[in-house]
């Protein structure tokens, strides 16, 4: 079991993104409805936030609700939106205690007004916190994000020859955040599911068989320890990375 003492604090990833997968399967194993898994997922969220703050991670992005999730049964969607309100009310103190600022990315106009209001209140209350930024990807997908960026570029009339990679980056929902250094996906699936596709060009990927509701501090530490055993080259040769 990996502990916090085994982590090199000088090489902690600045930005960690997580695909929190396995809530439904966890609930089925407990012989409950899927929403039971979503309710129990909050313990894992709290543990991930605490572990990230303890290690000195500056940005933690959680894939909370995708644009594709709107195709789920309406009862499940309604339950998730109510759970979101409840979770924000209950976890705002945890964010304040850990000096964490809340932020959001996604097609937020699709989120019910009551949920948006609750989230905005939490963002306002935590706006001055500086230890870490917790980014909730809500009603988000990467293809939606790129399409929206291109619409904004067209509306502003930018000349095609003036558009660079940096131009597009500035129009993305994540313009205020660095690209993820590490992606963690739980639940045993080996894909990135339309999440931060542009931003993860050089992100290290870590896949865990752990179902999300069972995710704990030690699982976060294990992912970071695995990240620290890798050499990030960004297209360079080993000699270039080492300065030879």
What does this structure look like?
It is a single chain. It is globular, with a radius of gyration of 18 Å. It is 43% helix and 15% strand. It is α/β, with parallel strands linked by helices and 244 residues long. The relative contact order is 0.19. Strands 3-4-2-1-5-6 form a 6-stranded parallel sheet, with helices on both faces. The longest helix is centred in the middle third of the chain and has 24 residues, at 74-97.
Q: Would you kindly provide a brief summary of this structure?
A:
This protein is an alpha/beta fold and 244 residues long. It has helices at 23-29, 34-55, 74-97, 113-126, 142-155, 165-171, 217-228, 238-242, and strands at 15-19, 59-66, 100-105, 132-140, 182-185, 204-207.
Map the helices and strands:
Layout (H helix, E strand, L loop, with lengths): L14 E5 L3 H7 L4 H22 L3 E8 L7 H24 L2 E6 L7 H14 L5 E9 L1 H14 L9 H7 L10 E4 L18 E4 L9 H12 L9 H5 L2
Parallel strand pairs: 1-2, 1-5, 2-4, 3-4, 5-6
Task: Quote the beta fraction.
Answer: 5-15%
SSE order:
EHHEHEHEHHEEHH
Q: Which residues sit in consecutive blocks of at least 5 with pLDDT less than 50?
A: none
Radius of gyration using CA atoms only = 18 Å
Number of helices: 8
Percent of residues in helical segments?
40-55%
User: So what's the overall shape?
Assistant: globular
Strand order of the largest sheet: 3-4-2-1-5-6
Beta-strand segment tally: 6
Biggest β-sheet description: 6 strands, parallel
Termini gap: 36 Å
């Amino acid at each position: 079991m990996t502990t916090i003492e085994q982590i090199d604090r000088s090489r902690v990833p600045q930005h960690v993104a997580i695909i929190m997968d396995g809530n439904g399967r966890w609930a089925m194993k407990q012989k409950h409805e899927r929403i039971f898994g979503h309710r129990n997922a909050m313990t894992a969220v709290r543990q991930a936030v605490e572990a990230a703050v303890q290690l000195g991670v500056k940005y933690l992005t959680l894939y909370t609700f995708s644009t594709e999730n709107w195709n789920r049964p309406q009862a499940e969607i309604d339950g998730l939106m109510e759970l979101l309100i409840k979770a924000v009310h209950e976890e705002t103190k945890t964010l304040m205690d850990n000096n964490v600022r809340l932020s959001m990315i996604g097609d937020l106009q699709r989120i019910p007004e009551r949920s948006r209001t609750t989230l905005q209140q939490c963002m306002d209350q935590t706006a001055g916190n500086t230890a870490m930024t917790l980014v909730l990807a809500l009603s988000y997908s990467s293809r939606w994000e790129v399409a929206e960026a291109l619409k904004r570029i067209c509306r502003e009339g930018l000349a095609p020859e003036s558009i660079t990679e940096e131009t597009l980056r500035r129009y993305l929902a994540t313009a205020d955040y660095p690209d993820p250094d590490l992606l963690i996906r739980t639940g045993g699936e080996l894909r990135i599911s339309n999440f931060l596709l542009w931003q993860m060009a050089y992100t290290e990927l870590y896949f865990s068989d752990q179902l999300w509701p069972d995710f704990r501090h030690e699982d976060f530490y294990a992912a970071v320890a695995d990240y620290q055993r890798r050499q990030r080259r960004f297209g360079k040769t080993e000699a270039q990375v080492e300065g030879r």
